[in-house]
Amino acid sequence: MINDSVEVIEIYPRIFVYRNFFADPQKNYEILKESTTNNEDRFFTEWTQWSRFGDYLNPAAPHLTSSLDLRELEEIDAKTPLQQIQKDFLKELITGFYEVSEDYVKRMSDELKFDINEQTEVRDEKGQKLLRWRPHGVSICRYHKDTKLIDPNIDQHKRAMMYHSDYIREPLVSPGYKFTITVLAYINDDYENGEIDFAVNGKLFKYKPKAGDFLVFPSGHPEVLTSDGDVYLHSVVEPKNEHKYFARMYWQRYSEGDQEWFDKENEFGKDTWLSMQDEIMENFRKDYHKDLK
């Protein structure tokens, strides 16, 4: 449960900002900046390349390869003072993730129709959890400043990431876990630009995060939290002058998959149908991104 000091703002329908959760955002910023220079005495994993636009810690700490809770984190030993500092940072981040998620789900209860605490334990007849936190736990990310990514078709600002939803759309929905809620935690705000830009049902809304913000919004799952059936898309404006640090976390909901998916499995064979997906998805994405323009 979030405490009274946390400010909750609905900046756009179904998009919420939770402010003042972190005890010391500047300290967290320094922890992440210093972590890029110390590759030996660390609790975090090492920074690795994240596409063309940044770096990330994914997972953020060793052995975090399954849905993460605080008990699991506590069981991982911190052997030095620096490792303890980084571990405490993760504990504060994950605590915030659970608390803002719980509040968000309560506010959106009429549309989501699930309870985080109950449905992370409830399983279907195949033993699948109905809801889970994304595997690999939390990713800590860093957008590079001043990259060379330019798309003149959108606006004058460079884009670190183009319009998309975290839910990966498919021509036929496969069985499995699908993104439902996205939770982002912003560590610093000392860069220029760097806004997150939403496109919803033909409307645009841009927000510049403040250091310490948690931002919660629909991931694009077509069954929940849509605007007149249209999913929430977002892009990110490139930061200038300083790197942009943030963490990303997700809730996923299990989908049984379309009947047509299983019809295709029967037609081609399960393994063959699965091997066809890379080409199918590549063509689908090309057509989909044409529609976005």
Could you explain the architecture of this structure?
This protein is 28% helix and 27% strand. With 293 residues, the chain is α+β, with helices and mostly antiparallel strands. It has two domains: 7-257, Sandwich (Jelly Rolls), CATH 2.60.120.620; 259-293, no CATH class. Strands 1, 2, 3, 4, 5, 6, 8, 12 and 15 form a nine-stranded antiparallel β-sheet that branches. Strands 7-13-10-11 form a four-stranded antiparallel β-sheet, with no helix packed on it. Strand 1 (7-12) and strand 2 (15-19) form a beta hairpin.
CATH class of the largest domain: Mainly Beta
Query: What structural class do the secondary elements suggest?
Result: alpha+beta
What's the total helix number?
8
Instruction: Give the integer mean of the pLDDT values.
Output: 84
Supply the CATH superfamily name of the largest domain. Answer: q2cbj1_9rhob like domain
Question: Could you write a compact summary of the structure shown?
Answer:
The chain has helices at residues 25-35, 70-74, 81-107, 109-112, 116-119, 259-268, 270-275, 277-292, and strands at residues 7-12, 15-19, 48-50, 54-57, 131-133, 139-143, 159-164, 176-186, 192-193, 196-200, 203-207, 214-218, 232-237, 239-240, 244-255.
Please describe the topology of this protein.
Layout: E1 7-12, E2 15-19, H1 25-35, E3 48-50, E4 54-57, H2 70-74, H3 81-107, H4 109-112, H5 116-119, E5 131-133, E6 139-143, E7 159-164, E8 176-186, E9 192-193, E10 196-200, E11 203-207, E12 214-218, E13 232-237, E14 239-240, E15 244-255, H6 259-268, H7 270-275, H8 277-292
Antiparallel strand pairs: 1-2, 2-12, 3-4, 4-6, 5-15, 6-15, 7-13, 8-12, 8-15, 9-14, 10-11, 10-13
